[in-house]
Structures are given as structure tokens and as C-alpha cells.
Specification:
Rossmann fold; 2 domains; 29% helix; globular
């Protein structure tokens, strides 16, 4: 079978290659074997390839934080999924044609889901959902401010917030994005800049903002912190700048602003298996019904993994880059 492996840590499209490896074999007791139908290339995957991610296993190593697959065989004792079921995998190393995993790591999705959307269920939708729920309880009519609002997570935050009756103030780098975010349900959009707090106050009519979401880090974290109310929460879940958060200590000492970090795995670990499956069942249903969606720019075969990884690093894209290892899409 084919798999994408790293030969070294470095420039992603130079160190990744499609290689032939032995098949995973039949499932043992409590195991599931599935064909990988599609996987997205996420920023965390790029960081994994460069060696800058929190995980740095011995080489060669296989990237891949998420995928969608179709079960082809189950081992003794597996009852939650069966052959033909569409599943996501809670484990990594998914840039391959086939996977063999523990039964509890194969989470079923609604039958008939669009495979492109199903490939992106595992990380971004629950990230958006839990960012809105796990730090502060917001009531309908309250505002949330977020930067990188045109990202996959940012778009999902807009859609989920709209369903919950929340208002979103969306910070982006260019005004040309305002229209497409408004079409998703964004209540207001502004361009990032040094006077962000003053403009946010003007746009919202001075409304209290108790939750700010930051995926840029560096000085951008401080700009979001300046927008939230006293004792509000700023949650950093990414670092597009590659820098640590820079926030004036007066926000903490005098205003009581709370700065927190989000990692999906840590927040999922607070929940039992039933709760995790319930989250994915809810999100899978929303995606299958078209209530949540993520744009896709291009799909590559696994044999073109170098081109796919290079494309995923380009700025100005209009959607995710997907790879289909078995030609399913």
C-alpha cells in the first residue's frame, strides 16, 4: 500500500514522499481496519513536517492528524462500527491508504456524508464548538471577537455562533473578505490594526465582549485582549505569527483579563468516550445536513503528496487542500 512518510524534518514538500509499504493486515481482537478515503492538510501537519510541532517522533514518520475512512473489517469484540461504515480516526498517522486502529478510536459518521466534508470533521468543527463553550457561558445576543475569521475554524465559529444566537465580530487582514463572511452569518467584520479596540467598540456600539479568540498570537493577542471587557477571556489556539502572545500586563493586573490556551486533545480528554462520540454525532449531523461546511480548494492523489503539501502552504487560498489515497473522490 502507499503511505506518505517524512525522511527528515525540514521544508515540508521536500522531506515528504509517497512510499510503498506493507499492508496493515487483518484486524486483531478489538481492532478496526479501514480504507482512508480522504485527508486534509492542516497547519499542524505542516508544523509536524518541519519538526516544530509538539510531537516529534523518530524518523521515518507518517503525518496526518485526521482523515475519513470506510471500514473493511472489524476484529472480535468490536460492536460500535462494522464493515461499510464511514468513520473518522481519533489517532494520527493518517496519510496512508489503509489504517488498522483500536475499535474505540474509529468513530462513526452519518452514512452518505459528503466525503470532502467528512474528511475535515475531526479537528476544526469540535475546536470551534468547544472554543465557544469551554471558557465562558455566553447568552444569546452576546458578542464574540475572533481574528483569522476567514480560516476554517473561524468560519465554523461564525456558523455555530449564529445557531446559538451569538454575535460575531470578525477580524481579518483584508476588507475583500467581508462579503463572504457576511454570507456565512458574520455580524460585523473589521480589518486588524493597532486601533482595533477603538474600532471594535464603535462597530458593536460599546457592547461588552466577554470572549476573544486568537489564532495569530504575538502582538495580535494583545489587540484582542484590548477588545474584551474587564475579566473577559482571551483564548489562544494557534500562532500564525510563530510568536508567543504579547499582552500588556495591565490587562491582567488592572482589568483582570483571563488568558487561556486551547488544544483540542486536552479538552476532549476531559470527556468520556460517550461524550466524545456524541459531539461527533451532533457535528456530523450538522455537516451532513449542510448546516456546517468548509470550502475545499483542490484535491490531490497521494502520489502527488509533495505538490499537495506545497499548495497547502500557499497564502490566499480559498479552501482546504485534500488528498484522496484511494481515488474515492
Amino acid at each position: 500500500m502507499k503511505r506518505a512518510d517524512l525522511s527528515a524534518y525540514g521544508i515540508p514538500h521536500e522531506v515528504i514522499a509517497c512510499v510503498d509499504v506493507p499492508d496493515v493486515g487483518p484486524p486483531g481482537p478489538g481492532e478496526v481496519v479501514f480504507d482512508v478515503l480522504a485527508f486534509p492538510i492542516n497547519p499542524a501537519d505542516i508544523g509536524f513536517c518541519t519538526g516544530n510541532y509538539r510531537l516529534r517522533p523518530p524518523l521515518p514518520a507518517t503525518p496526518g492528524a485526521e482523515c475519513v475512512g470506510r471500514v473493511i473489517a472489524v476484529g472480535e469484540g468490536v460492536s460500535d462500527v462494522g464493515p461499510g461504515d464511514l468513520v473518522i480516526n481519533l489517532q494520527r498517522e493518517n496519510w496512508a491508504q489503509r489504517r488498522r486502529v483500536r475499535g474505540e478510536d474509529a468513530v462513526p459518521l452519518p452514512a452518505g456524508m459528503d466525503l470532502k466534508q467528512a474528511a475535515m470533521v475531526r479537528i476544526n468543527p469540535p475546536t470551534a464548538l468547544l472554543l465557544l463553550s469551554d471558557f465562558v457561558t455566553l447568552a444569546p445576543g452576546e458578542w464574540v471577537i475572533q481574528n483569522v475569521a476567514n480560516s476554517a475554524v473561524g468560519r465554523l465559529v461564525i456558523m455555530l455562533a449564529k445557531r446559538q444566537g451569538l454575535l460575531t465580530l470578525n477580524v481579518v487582514r483584508r476588507e475583500s473578505l467581508f462579503g463572504e463572511l457576511a454570507a456565512l452569518g458574520a455580524d460585523a467584520c473589521i480589518v486588524d490594526g493597532d486601533d482595533l479596540a477603538a474600532r471594535a467598540k464603535a462597530v458593536t456600539g460599546g457592547a461588552t465582549i466577554r470572549l476573544g479568540l486568537d489564532a495569530v498570537s504575538g502582538a495580535a493577542t494583545g489587540r484582542i485582549a484590548a477588545c474584551v471587557a474587564d475579566e473577559g477571556h482571551v483564548v489562544t489556539y494557534g500562532s500564525m505569527s510563530g510568536e508567543d502572545p504579547k499582552v500588556d500586563r495591565a490587562n491582567f493586573v488592572f482589568r483582570g483579563v483571563n488568558l487561556g490556551g486551547f488544544m483540542l486533545g486536552r479538552h476532549m480528554a476531559r470527556r468520556d468516550a460517550a461524550a466524545i462520540r456524541a459531539i461527533y454525532a451532533e457535528l456530523g449531523g450538522d455537516i451532513a445536513a449542510g448546516r456546517l461546511h468548509t470550502p475545499v480548494e483542490r484535491i490531490y492523489p497521494i502520489e502527488q503528496i509533495k505538490d499537495a503539501v506545497a499548495h497547502a502552504q500557499q497564502g490566499g487560498r480559498n479552501g482546504k487542500i485534500l488528498v484522496t489515497p484511494n481515488g474515492a473522490i
